[in-house]
Amino acid sequence: MAKKFLSGDEAFAEGVRLARPEVISAYPITPQTIVVERLSEMVENGSLRSEFIHVESEHSALSCAIGASAVGARAFTATSSQGLLYMAECLSYASGGRFPIVMMNANRSTALPWNIYGDQRDSISQLDCGWIQAYAENAQESLDLALMSYYIAEHEAVSTPFMVNLDGFILTHTYETVDVPSQEQADAYLPPYETENKLDLQHPRNLAFSAGPEHNYIFKYKAHAAMLRAKSVVAEAEQRFAKVFGRCYTGLLESYRIEDADYILITLGSIAGLCREAADSLRQKGHKVGVVRLRYLRPFPSEELAEAVKQARAVGVLEKDISFGNEGTVFTNVNSALLQAGISIPSYNFIGGLGGRNISREDVTDIFERIESGTERVQFIGVEVDDK
Amino acid sequence: MKPYLREKRQFGFDDIPESTAFEAGYLVSVNSGWRSIRPVVNAQKCVGCGQCYFYCPDGVLSMENGKAKIDYDFCKGCGICAKLCKPNAIRMEAER
Predict the structure, then answer these.
(1) What residue of B is the nearest CA neighbor of A216?
(2) Which long-range contacts (CB under 8 A, 24 or more apart) does B33-37 make?
(3) Model ipTM?
(4) Which range marks the domain in which residue A78 is found?
(5) Which residues of A touch B16 (CB under 8 A)?
(6) Chain A residue with minimum CA distance to B28
(7) What average pLDDT does range A108-113 have in this prediction?
(8) One CATH from 3.40.50.720, 2.30.38.10, 3.30.70.20, 3.40.50.2000 for B36-94
(9) pTM to 2 decimal places
């Protein structure tokens, strides 16, 4: 293990190198570019033996990865924002074909107005495409998720593609000290990819076929069941990770000071650190507040979330997303989980950070205070509108 | 060459694979319901040149004992085979 000073993108590239993908296909897009730049340098200098395919679009990037996975290769791609939307057609091909591709997505705003900065509307718009979705908080978790994502995606009980999301710029471009494991450790953690879901001369199969109404929905059911099985495989992957690397993760979500918390803020991604800091300050003033960070949106941690907030008096959801005409989609998912568990407490939705707008410590403190005092159900933080 | 396996049986939950990968050539249903005219081969006129085999867009023509043979489970009745058959060995007939 070596300590290095890396950005989120660079840390993820190191994690991908350690996972030894046999094929990498990607098209550059800010703020993802550095990941594929670093990987192409690694292939060039020989530190990573991989087929690096330069493609002309994101649609082709994922198509190449699907083709690679369909001959049994470990495949990687990365994108962001409009790039993710451009490859959207292929997302369901990858998940329906159950090809365990790993993709890094740098969370970035979607046009119009055109903008390169971070929010989560790109990946959240694709929640239903059948991919596992994880959200990293820092550079170390980014590297670690690169390794764990392959373990989970390729697990025979799962066999589902995996999207790891890093907040654009705030995480992708921020430098931190990162423990980079040795190749020997990584090899001990991640076995080579073995599958029967491939073109194979010894066992010829039809691959990626059509299925009529009678059978089609059973494929969808099985994909859903596999995604639910991924919940326990995430736990298995993290236990194994702790054993090999000595770093522990907390499953589909991460809780902070929730044991006796009356008011809990639920969020995801890199903003969670600031939320914990703000919670600490409020705790010193006697406010019983806590934070839950959703590490995965698919599979969604419904039971785990209900368990975490069951003692709370009210919850808030802070997300960098809005489903126009409704509310933030994370909020919708959270409310559904609470309803299923019979938890009936006020919940409030705070939309922030769209188009990369900064969320300050004062904003987060204000959010906690609003959860405590009660507020509008859905609000854009920092936007004051005179209704009169 | 035609698909070598075609059992007309019910596929239960456990028969359906996890991924879209299954034994090559396996067809679970026929697909020819919208055909209004069907090609019929006159074996006397067929010279076994194989042009219909090469040009059929649906791969339903095969050669058997040197003569063209049509798989009516999948033929859509487009008539390309009849159009290009030089000896006029294939005729389109109305479906009854």
Answers:
(1) B16
(2) B34/B76, B34/B77, B35/B75, B35/B76, B35/B77, B35/B95, B36/B77, B36/B94, B36/B95, B37/B77, B37/B79, B37/B92, B37/B93, B37/B94, B37/B95
(3) 0.79
(4) 2-245
(5) 215, 218-219, 222
(6) A211
(7) 97
(8) 3.30.70.20
(9) 0.91
